[in-house]
Write a structure and sequence with these properties.
Elements lengths: L21 E4 L1 H8 L5 E5 L11 E6 L5 E14 L16 H11 L12 E10 L1
Parallel strand pairs: 1-3
Antiparallel strand pairs: 2-5, 3-4, 4-5
Length: 130
Amino acid sequence: MSYQVPPTTSVNDDEFIPNKNVIPFAPELVQFILDERKLTTYRFGKKYDYHQVGDLVEIQNSTTKEIVGQARILAKRSTTFEGVPVNTGTHESYRDKEHQRQVLSGYYAYIGREIADDDPFLIFDFALIK
């Protein structure tokens, strides 16, 4: 079942550097994860490329730094922004590609520019472990 991006999303002017086994999420997305609606994440660049299928990771609220759960990585793939899906059943959906670019450019504002079509992204599918 599809669900929409929250009306207000985070803008990260500073890059968040988590511990190695942690994947941080914007606070407005944490409940989607805990409700097991959000089971896919899109990550700019190759910062998380060391994660492999089968890895156990901690899910962190990027604002409060609270660890809210654990997840197992089920799939990993590389693409460019152009190849990142706009609407899947396991990731919040966007109105269109430009809306997606706007939201992700806010999450990755620290790069100092808008997300470009050829920017690299990693896509991780995961299962929440309670």
